[in-house]
Amino acid sequence: MQRRGWFLGTLVLAIGLISSVWAADTPKSGGTIKMAIPGDMTFFNGNQGPAPGYNTFWVWNNIFNGLVTASPPPKFDPVPELAKSWEILDDGKVYVFHLVEGVKFHDGTDFDAEAAKWNFDRILDPATKSWVRVYYTDIDKVEAVDKYTLRISMKKPSVLLPALAGYFNGIPMLSPTAVQKNGKDWVRKPVGTGPFKLKELIPGDRIVLEKNPDYFKKGFPLLDVAEFRVMKEPQTAMTALRTGEIDFIMRVPVKLVPILERSKNVKMLTGPELAPTVAFLNLRVKPFDDVKARRAVGGYGLDRAEIAKVAFQGRTEPLVSVLPRGVPGAINLNEMYPYDPEKAKAMLKELGFDKSHPLSFTILLSNIDTTLADIAALIKNQLAKIDVDAKINLMDATAVVDRLLVKHDFDMLISSFGSLVDINMRSVSFFYGAQSDYMGINDTNLQNMVYKWRETLDQPERRKISADIQRLLADQMYWVNVAGYPFFQAHREWVKDYVFYDQTAFLLEKVWLDK
C-alpha cells in the first residue's frame, strides 16, 4: 500500500508538472500589447504614394495583407497570404493567383480579384506616384479572371514573387471603397484585410489597433489590442520596458543593448545585418555630381573601421558594398576604399577645394536612433581631417522622411536605410526620375543590369549579376555605406511567439501575452 501510494503521488506530481508546462506554452487569447516606437507616424498609404518611413510601415504590417508574404529570415521565401496558391506559366510571363474565398475588408466589403486588380492598377498608374512602382514595370496587364482568380501577364519573363512577398510588404491590399469614400483623408483612415484595424490615432502620442474579429485566418489574432506609443527618448522607453509599463521596444539603440542584455525578464533580439548604415550623397547637388568628390568624401575620406568600432561597439563591420553581410549575394568590397585622408585631400584639390577654400555641406539625420548622432559626429571629425567643413542637422524622423523621400533635399544623409532580401530590393532607388529616386542616380547601364537580374530565372546567374551591380555602385560611389546596421529589439519575456524579421516586417498576428 505504501509503494502504491508513492506511485500514485509521483504520477499526480508528474501529470501536474506536464500540465503546467503545457499550460505555459499554450497560446492565450486577449490582452493589450504596449510598444514603444521611436517616432511619429506619417501616412498609411499601402505603398500607393511616397515611402512612409519605418514607424508607419511597421504599424501597417498589421492592418494590411498582400497576395503573398515572406517566410522568416534568412530565406524570405514567398508563402501564401491572400492568395492561397499560384501558378507560374509560360516561363515566367504569366502568374495566376488563386485567392482565399470569403475575405472581408475592415469596412465589410469583399476582397476579391477585382479589388486586387484595383490595387495593382493604382500602383502601376504613374499618376499615383507610388514609390515601389519601379519593381512592377514589367507587368503588362492585370485581369480578374473570375471572382477569386487574378491573372498577371508580364511583358517578358520576369521574377515577380520576391517583390510581392518580401519588398516592403509588396502591394498591400486596400479597400477600394474606403479610399473612394474618404477622399484625400484615406491615408489617415487605413482599411485593409489584416489581423488588426485602426481604433485610434493621436499624432505625436499613440496609435491603437484593435482585433479584427472577422480575420480570415481563423483563431488569429490572439491579442485584443496593439498600442504603439511614440517614445522619442530611448532612455524613457528602456525604463518603461524594465518596469513593465510597456511590453516591447521596436528599435533599441546599440548603446542601450548592454543594459537590456543584463535586465531581468527582458529578451533581446537581433540577427545578421540586413540593413546598411548609409552616409549617401545627393548626386543632384555640387560637387557630388562629380565621381571624384564622391570618392574623396564617401570613399577614402571615411574611416569605416572607426565607425564600426566606436559607434556600434564593435558589433558590426565596415561596409563599402551596397549589401550588408546578412543579405544573400553580398560581396565584400572594403578593399576598394581603404581609409586614406591624403588621397581624399588630393582628389578634392583637383576639384578646387583645400584648407583655404574648404568644401562645406550639411549632414542630415533623424532622431530615431541616438547611434546615428554618434556616427554623424565621427564623420564630421573625419571629414575635418580632409579639410571639409560638415555641419550636422538633427531633425525629427517625420521631417527627415519629407526632406529625403519626398523633396530629395539634402547633401549627405546618415541613416539605417532599409533591410534587404536581395539586390533587386535596393534597385527601387536606381531609376532616374522615379518617385523613389532619392540620390539622383542616372546610369542606364545600371538600370539595364537590374532588368537583366529580373529576367534571369536561374539563381546562380542572378547572383553574378548582383555582384556586378555591387561593384558598379561602389566604383561610382553612387551609394555610400559605412557599416552594417545591427538592428535590435527588446521585449518582456511574457511576449510569446514573436518572430524577428529585422526591419523587413513587424508582425503581431500570432503574438500572445503570458501574463
Task: Give an account of the 3D structure.
The protein has 515 residues and is of the alpha+beta class. The model is unreliable at 1-22 (pLDDT under 50). It has 3 domains: 32-38 and 194-271 and 488-513, D-Maltodextrin-Binding Protein, domain 2, CATH 3.40.190.10; 65-176, Dipeptide-binding Protein, Domain 1 (Dipeptide-binding Protein, domain 1); 276-484, Dipeptide-binding Protein, Domain 3 (Dipeptide-binding Protein, domain 3). The relative contact order is 0.16. Strands 8-9-10-1-11-18-12 form a 7-stranded mixed β-sheet. It has a 5-stranded mixed β-sheet with strand order 15-14-16-13-17, sandwiched between helices. The protein has a 4-stranded antiparallel β-sheet with strand order 4-5-7-6, with helices on one face. The chain has 15 helices and 20 strands. Strand 14 (359-366), helix 11 and strand 15 (388-395) form a beta-alpha-beta unit. The chain has helices spanning 2-25, 54-60, 113-124, 161-166, 176-182, 234-243, 257-261, 291-300, 304-311, 341-350, 370-384, 397-406, 423-426, 444-455, 459-476, and strands at 32-37, 68-70, 78-80, 83-89, 94-99, 139-146, 149-154, 196-202, 206-211, 225-230, 248-249, 266-269, 276-281, 359-366, 388-395, 412-416, 481-484, 489-492, 495-496, 512-513. The radius of gyration is 25 Å and the shape is globular.
